[in-house]
Structure formats: C-alpha cells, structure tokens
Amino acid sequence: MDSKPKGPQGGRMADTIVRCAALSKYYGKSRGVEDLSFEIRPGQVFGFLGPNGAGKTTTIRCLLSLLAPTSGRSYLFDEEVKLNDSAAHSRIGYVPGDVALFSAQTGRWTIDYISGLRGRKPSSANELCERLGYDPSRRVKELSKGNKQKLALVIALMHNPELLVLDEPTSGLDPINQQEIFDIIAERIECEGTTVFLSSHILSEVERVCDRVGIIREGRLVAEESIDDIIAKAIRKVRITYEEPIRAELYSAIGGVSELTQVDARTITAKVTSDLDGALRALMDRRIHDIQVTHASLEEIFFQYYTRNGISTDTGGAP
Questions:
Q1: Residue 274's Cα: distance from chain center in Å?
Q2: Domain locations in the chain?
Q3: At CB < 8 A and 24+ separation, what contacts does 252-260 make?
Q4: Phi, psi (5° rounding) for residue 58?
Q5: Residue closest to 235 by CA, chosen among 179, 296, 281
Q6: Do 24 and 73 meet the contact criterion of CB atoms below 8 Å apart?
Q7: Residue among 121, 122, 123, 145 at smallest CA distance from 134
Q8: Nearest-angstrom CA–CA distance, 55 and 220
C-alpha cells in the first residue's frame, strides 16, 4: 500500500518540489550558472538572493524548461525537466522579471486565454483583481507598469498553483499593493501549503515570507541558510540625533561600528555590522532626541559578507 500523502491534484506528493543537481548553463563562453545544487521541499518558502547578473533568472528559466542546461539536471515535482516540456506548468504560477503580455488584448481576455491553455479554472481571478485594485476590462497597451505587474500576478495566482515561482514579484507596485500581494502569498502558504521560490534583491520581501535562503554569486550558490541566520548578518544603518552637541569620534572605539559620520552638531550616522544591542547601548550613553535604525541594502550585506569571506563581489555575467 502507498502510504505517501496525496498532492492537491490527487497524485503522489513529491519528495521535493524543486531540485537542481550540479546545474550549469553557459551562453557561449559567458557564465550563466555553474554547478548549482539545492532543493525545496513541499510547503517550504525559499528565497533566492543575489545581485543583478548573478544567475537568478537563468536558474528559473532552466527550471521552467525555457533553457536547456549545459550540464547537470533540474527537477520539478520529482520529475526531470526537459526543454519545452510544459507537463508541470499547470501546477506552477510564474511571475517573470520582465513581464510580456498580449498588448492588444484586455486583461480579461488574457485571463481566459491562459486559463484555457492550462486547463485549469481561474478560481480566484476576480478576488485577486479586486484586492489588487486591477481593472481587467482595459487593454494591456493602456496599462501602466504597475498594472501590468498586477495582471501578471493575477495570472500566476488565479489557479491556486502548488508552486509559485516569483522573480522580483513586486516590481513597479506601490507600497500598498506590495503589502497586499505579500498578504496574499502568506495566506496561500498558511492555508494551502503552497511552495514558494522567490527570487529577489529586496531583503524585506524575503525576510517576511521565507524559511530559507540561497545566495547566488557569480553563478554559484555560495551560501544556503535559514532566514534568521542571514538576517543576523545584515548591516544596520543607525542615525542618532542627541539633545546636546556631540562629536562622532567619541564612539570610534565601539565594537562592530564603522563609517561614523558627523551629519551636524547633534547628529551622527554609523553602520553596525555586529552586536546591534551592544552597539546601540554604547551609542545611547546620553539623552537622545531621535534615533533611526534601518537595514542596509542587500547589496551592502553581500559586500560585507563576501569580502569578509574572501569572495569577489564582481557581478558580471548573464542574468
């Protein structure tokens, strides 16, 4: 008797939803990705991080059978991916980094057309349009970049897929809609056990929903860690305004604090690279008028993390 749990479509639940095994892709002599190995199990939310040119989009295109690897293999739902094989596509919701749509058609036509290709009903299309404030009656060529992104998100989510592959999903969206789309994704994760593969360079997006992260640099996976571990490595930017004038050099000996800058007579800024609690206690040794603590950009975290480990920060290469 087969005791494995059943998937949403009634078939056997896959052991892994996404898997790359020594995957490499070259464009002539140019590197795309090299010897890439990782896996995502059912219900996991995996953040795929890296600067532009690191190989994130190449990886996704190989996984979705849009590119043939130079060597190695990739798998979806435990089945090896073959070039132009669309067998698994109805189980996947994909938002590409560069959205391409039928410009002469309406959003409603696009929704119906894609649903027909998938053979799956767009069961949540109307709800998604309403929540994102998207009007599907308008022609695509009339839409702003943000509304084209909304349509791409509706198409990706409307058939309640088992796997979401999201390549910079909030590009072009205003902060309210960015918040709404991650509310929707979080609901899918919690209520339906959706597996998510999120490619992004925005740390706050990854921090909000991901369990684990893989970091790609120059086409290679250089780290794979829990989200708590990667956030602990994040540089914080601190801006403090004191009640009285202060000199920044008074704090130059604090451990983990660098790039102290005197902004004006009462304000200093600094980067904190370790022991945030200890550094803040030392910096707040007198009366404070205002304090701001923010994450540095992901690119700055990369630079700090990789230079510390002797890894080049050159971002040349394919997408």
A1: 24
A2: 18-231, 235-295
A3: 254/279, 254/282, 254/283, 255/279, 257/282, 257/283
A4: -60, -45
A5: 296
A6: no
A7: 145
A8: 8
CATH value of 18-231 in 3.40.50.300, 3.30.565.10, 3.40.50.2000, 3.30.930.10: 3.40.50.300
Question: Which of 2-16, 223-237, 294-308 is modeled with the greatest confidence?
Answer: 223-237
Using one digit for the tens of pLDDT, what is the confidence trace for 151-177? Answer: 999 999 999 999 999 998 988 899 999
Question: What is the amino acid identity at position 197?
Answer: F
The C-alpha angle 10, 42, 47, rounded to 5 degrees, equals 140
Q: What is the pLDDT of residues 70-104, one digit of tens each?
A: 999 999 999 999 998 888 888 999 999 888 899 99
Give the architecture-level CATH label for domain 235-295.
2-Layer Sandwich (3.30)
Q: What is the rounded distance in angstroms from the CA atom of residue 142 to the CA atom of residue 120?
A: 27
